[in-house]
Amino acid sequence: MVETITYKGFEIKVEREHYPEDPRYFYDYAGRIATYNDSHVGFNECELIGATAKNGYLSWSSELKWYIFNVKMHAILPLYESNGIYSTESVQGNQIGFIYMPKDRFKERYFNQDCIPDIYKKDNPDITIRQVCEIILKGEVETFNDYKNGEVYGWTIEFPEETESCWGYYGEDHEKSGVIESAMNSIDCYLRHQRVKHFNKLRAHIKHRVPLINRTPCAYA
Q1: Whole-number pLDDT of residue 56
Q2: What is the DSSP letter of 77?
Q3: How far is CA 151 from CA 83, 121, 138, 143, in A?
Q4: H-only helix segments in the chain
Q5: Residue 5: pLDDT above 50?
Q6: 219 compared with 170, residue with greater pLDDT
Q7: pTM value?
Q8: CB of 133 closer than 8 Å to CB of 106
Q9: Could you tell me how far CA 103 lies from the centroid of its own chain?
């Protein structure tokens, strides 16, 4: 299904991406996964944590618990799965492991600084690194679910000279994913470029005293 939006005289076509990239491979997400077994292979760089079943429940040895909770990390959240959908909240489904943020990984992803990026301080100046990491981890799980459900989109715009497109926007909420904003920015950029070209041509016409009748008006004034 193609959704068409008109912006400044151009049509923006938004549609699902046919062959989307796995976000955990393509974007090299910061969060790391520790699962009970190797049946959940959808996550990049899984650390397979063995567990034994006892009275219908999975149990870990004290050594494995120490490993999970003493890895140098900023945050750790439980990871649940139900019918192929992953979540950090136990609304339904079984816990399959954890998703966590190692301190060195956080530092590596944010310009080698062990501090809170300014973007997260906008709504909450007192936000902690742990809270930031939990937001990031939940977002990574949500994006992976969008990928699994085929909720990955892109846009296409036909300009007079060529067709432009951009893909890899996860989630059916187009405002949240930024797919519409990105397409509009592309149109704005195209219009600015066309105006600059026209004005440069106009200066040349003025310089060489080209008659007004021979001057082409700007199509994107």
Answers
A1: 45
A2: E
A3: 16, 29, 17, 9
A4: 23-26, 62-70, 103-109, 129-148, 174-177, 179-207
A5: yes
A6: 170
A7: 0.74
A8: yes
A9: 21
